[in-house]
Amino acid sequence: DRVMNSLIAEQKGLLPTEQADELLQLYARLQLPCSIQGITAETYKKARDEITVHRDGLLRAPLPAPIGGCAYVDEITDEEIERAFARLQAFIQENPQVLWDPSKSFAAGA
């Protein structure tokens, strides 16, 4: 969520591309997962829509503006999600260690 929110903030012009790049490189360097296998742009769109319903019609999504700051937005477009997700997917292709496979989790056998 943090990485995707940052990439959406980048799409909205709230987060400079340099800071988004630094964040991605930090995740790669530390080998932290930044997405879960099987998640798609459609997953994020559905989540956005469900959150809006539960928050009385307002999204109130906190986005970095820039890192260290925060802006709450009530609209994230399908196009912003799709562009952010495409950027995330390209990053994962270059850094496959950041994709979390839930089937390899300790909880998967429970």
Keywords:
single chain, 110 residues, mainly alpha, two-stranded parallel sheet, two-stranded antiparallel sheet, 4 strands
**What share of residues are in beta strands?**
5-15%
Number of strands: 4
Major beta sheet, strand line-up:
1-4
The helix/strand class is mainly alpha
> How would you sum up the major sheet?
2 strands, parallel
Radius of gyration in whole Å, from Cα? 14 Å
- The stretches of 5 or more residues where confidence is low (pLDDT under 50) are none
Order of helices and strands: HHEHEEHE
Helix content: 40-55%
Average pLDDT for all residues: 94
Q: Report how far the terminal alpha carbons are from each other.
A: 25 Å
Shape: globular
Enumerate how many helices there are, as a single number: 4
Q: What is the secondary structure topology, with strand pairs?
A:
Blueprint: H1 2-11, H2 17-30, E1 35-36, H3 41-54, E2 61-64, E3 70-73, H4 78-94, E4 99-100
Parallel strand pairs: 1-4
Antiparallel strand pairs: 2-3
Helix pairs in contact: 1-2, 1-4, 3-4
What does this molecule look like?
Helix content is 50%, strand content 11%. With 110 residues, the protein is mostly helical. A two-stranded parallel ribbon has the order 1-4. It has a two-stranded antiparallel sheet with strand order 2-3. A hairpin with a 5-residue loop joins strand 2 (61-64) and strand 3. Helix 1 packs antiparallel against helix 2, helix 1 crosses helix 4 (78-94) and helix 3 (41-54) packs across helix 4.
